[in-house]
Design goal:
The two termini are 27 Å apart. By secondary structure, this protein is α/β, with parallel strands linked by helices. The protein is globular and about 55 Å long. Strands 2-4-5 form a three-stranded parallel beta sheet, sandwiched between helices. It has a two-stranded antiparallel ribbon with strand order 1-3. Strands 6-7 form a two-stranded antiparallel ribbon. Helix content is 45%, strand content 12%. The longest helix is centred in the last third of the chain and has 15 residues, at 125-139. The chain contains eight helices and seven strands, in the order βαααββαββββαααα.
Length: 164
Amino acid sequence: SEELYGKRVEALKFFSQYNEVDLYGGRWENASLFIKKIWHGFAGDKPKTMSDYKFALCFENAIWPGYVTEKIFDCFLVGTIPVYWGAPDVEEYIPTDCFIDIRKFIKNGEKNYEELRQFLHALTPDQINKYREAIRVFFASESFKKFTPEHFVETMLKIIHGNY
């Protein structure tokens, strides 16, 4: 697996040049100067804070097949469009029209954050609403149910009872 912490820092550094990124969360207290410029501490109300943004850099901690965590769902829940990097097979779990796949902005191993930035700025309100509508459709679908706490409990019970 490939870790994505360093990639997250690279993206933050790029977008911080334009004052187009805010950073929340822990473990950034001793980070470099550009991080301190964009870091706003902990979000008191994470959903409320996230809902104030059209987009969120949404990088998993590592690249593993099937490793899709709450990060992308936190975005979906509040209508923020994730700029996602993580599971190489994410499209097997989540429709691609629900998120912006950062891998589309990597060519020959080189990340093109300027191309990503231009893409984000060029999105019209209608295009942004199409992402949000796709997210709503996904939440209402059978495909989403496998990510619910109820499904997790059912799966655990099947494993415990030897029926999985």
